[in-house]
Design a protein that fits this description.
NADH Oxidase, alpha+beta, homodimer, 209 residues
Amino acid sequence: MEFSELMKKRRSVNFFDPEKPVEQGVLEKIIEEASLTPSGFNLQPWNLLVVRSPEVKKRLRKIAWDQPKIEDAPVVLVLLADKDGWRPEHPVMEKAWQDQIDLGYTKPEMRSWFDGAARQLFDSEKGSLIFAVRNSCFFGMSLMLAVANAGLDSHPISGFDHEALVAELEVPDNFVVPMMLVVGHFDEKQTLGPAKWRKSYDEIVRQEL
Amino acid sequence: MEFSELMKKRRSVNFFDPEKPVEQGVLEKIIEEASLTPSGFNLQPWNLLVVRSPEVKKRLRKIAWDQPKIEDAPVVLVLLADKDGWRPEHPVMEKAWQDQIDLGYTKPEMRSWFDGAARQLFDSEKGSLIFAVRNSCFFGMSLMLAVANAGLDSHPISGFDHEALVAELEVPDNFVVPMMLVVGHFDEKQTLGPAKWRKSYDEIVRQEL
């Protein structure tokens, strides 16, 4: 679909048809399309848990204000943002670095400069959190658009008990979970409400310098 | 442009043509298109500084590892993520709330529940930071795609001295700056290098549950 139309068509829907499945092949295509998202130094510090199990979805619903859509939608994607994604010896970091050498974007002798820069920017609780959430949420937005482009619907969920979710799903400490994304088909028995208000240019732009 | 093509066409380019301007009308259309981005409770905690001044760009270049593209590109967008965007009496919060009442999505008597839920989720240093960066970076990704869809090029920049930037531009304390986005036209005298490696489905998905 044309991008401008897609931006209007993508809506966060509240009602999903539990009878309409999300084919695995379609989901894989969506995720690989979203993988083209840019990230700082191409570190791609995002991972997903793909939840289809009714039993796991029931537990997720409990820790997310009992929202029925979590059980109704066939798939819940749990976005994991990797606070360690910039560290030397992280496998993705090493692969991204080697790729940039292979493509001629950097040289092996730049490595110590890079490691120092990354430490300076990200080696703190706040720095690593911003690094992880920023890049993962670029990916999260791409996911929402790729879902809509595949003719499916979604709803991002940030209203959940983070501590409980991490415990339930045994998410390792290096990850923070900025959102879950419920994916499925809008329940055609329901009516889609009108689009909500959005800020105008003048409300977004604080200052022109 | 068709979304799947756009995802492939959007590249973070390093060389901008200083002679090719970004028309104000085009920029406004890009920003308004990106404004369709979803956010938790529709709170849209994003603002921008639009920098065109050569003198301000020179100062930004200094605090961002001396990257020439900051001066070469006609526009630098500084993304501000509002950590207070969920607080009662914040004008955007109040407008979003009233809009949801007007559209029938909520009722006035839900307000104290909502304020309590928001406080529980966001009223901490970490909670407000994740809230602000998550939603603003959804918007940031939409911006990058809207820029590409308008036939322009961009480069997201996270390698800068945050403290210095906040001081230089007198950014109020309620904002954190997750990125700058350099916007312009690729310098056709340069050659665009090959696309970098991206993680596959299996590298992104940690677990299927």
